[in-house]
Each structure stands twice: as structure tokens, then as C-alpha cells.
Amino acid sequence: MNALEFFQLSEGLWRSHRITHHLLLRRSESGNTEIQVQVLAPEDSKVIEICQLHHVQPQLAIGGCFVQWQGAMAWDQDDDTPHRGSTVLVLVPQAGNASSGQLLRERGYAESIPVVSQYQMDAQSGLVLTTEYETMSSQERFWFANPNLRLRTTTVKSFGGFNTTSFCAESKLVSDQPSNESTLATVNTSEQPDLMPTHSSHSWLGW
């Protein structure tokens, strides 16, 4: 499987359950979200716009995806408004190798800014993303247990030594009926109320 085929297999509506561990605080929290993934052709205007944002020639891109999400985590228990957002991801492979290259991101996982990640398909058909920011780095791995179950692990390392790890299980919603918005976010409120996120709430998808 190459990266574009991985994107194609990811297309659709997914319900994600995430558990995040804050290693320094020795605490964890969980949350739920729904994610809509739409694959984009190389000539799509969204793909071209992201290439231009990163000063990459659009003809080098092989495609991308448009991602929308809505959900909440335990730290949102005092906020009745679920987090919503969207982002665009664009694949720019290395010459002659569709399994590795650059992933142009409208916003990063650890910081909500435009960023370029390095992607690599590993021997188990997992998609591995590595991203370097000014003050931290992140590594994400996605893989399919089956076509309707996608798993994801994420590690964020601050250069000051503060780390978080996350695990997500994402189930594909195969029904053609639109999801009821009132069920999109279910928050685990059993955690401590003073626990704060270490990165932007825009990082629902993690790509």
C-alpha cells in the first residue's frame, strides 16, 4: 500500500475514541470525535492552494484529503460547545517513490500552524508521520486492523522534556444516513477538572 492508497482507504465518516497520557503529570484523559475524510484529486483547488502556501509546485502533488471533525475531550467539560475544525493534507512523494515523501499540512498536530511532515509507509502498511516544530516534535503512526477499523498512536516530545502519548481507535460508520449532530461528542468527565491540553484542540485528527 502506498500513501495515496492509504488516504483512499481512509475516506468516509469515522468515529474516533482517543486516550491521551500526560507523562509528566501522570494523568490521562479520553474523548470522542467524528471525522469526515474526503480524498482530493491533484488538480483540486484545495490541493493547489496548500502547495502554494508551502511554495511547492502543484504538479508534484499526487493528491490529498480534506478532513473535518467535531468532538470534545475531558478538559472541555465546562465548555458546552464541541470543537469543530477542518484541514487539508497534500501528498508530495519523493521522485520515483510513492511510499515516502512530504505531507503538506494546513495545520500541524502539536501546533496549529502550517507545517510540512515527512511520511513513510512501513513494512506493515502503516503510515508514519514525523513532524519537527520550533519547540517540539511529534511522531504519528496509522494502520488498519481491517477496512473499518483504523488505529493511531502519537507521541509529542517537547524540547524541554514534557511528553504526551495518545492512542486512538477509529471505527468507520458505514451507514449512508448522516450522523445526528447531538451524538457527535461524548466526553469522559471522570478526569481532574484542572487538567489542560498540551497542544491545540485543532489536533483531533492528528494527521
In short:
With 207 residues, this protein is mainly beta.
List the helices and strands and how they pair.
Elements: H1 3-10, E1 12-22, E2 27-40, H2 45-53, E3 63-73, E4 83-94, E5 97-105, E6 115-121, E7 127-132, E8 136-146, E9 149-158, E10 163-172
Antiparallel strand pairs: 1-2, 1-10, 2-3, 3-4, 4-5, 5-6, 6-7, 7-8, 8-9, 9-10
Walk me through what this model shows.
With 207 residues, the chain is mainly beta. It has a single domain (3-170), classed as Lipocalin, CATH 2.40.128.20. Helices cover 8% and strands 49% of the residues. Strands 1-2-3-4-5-6-7-8-9-10 form a ten-stranded antiparallel beta barrel. The longest helix is centred in the first third of the chain and has 9 residues, at 45-53. It starts with a helix and ends in a 35-residue tail after the last strand.
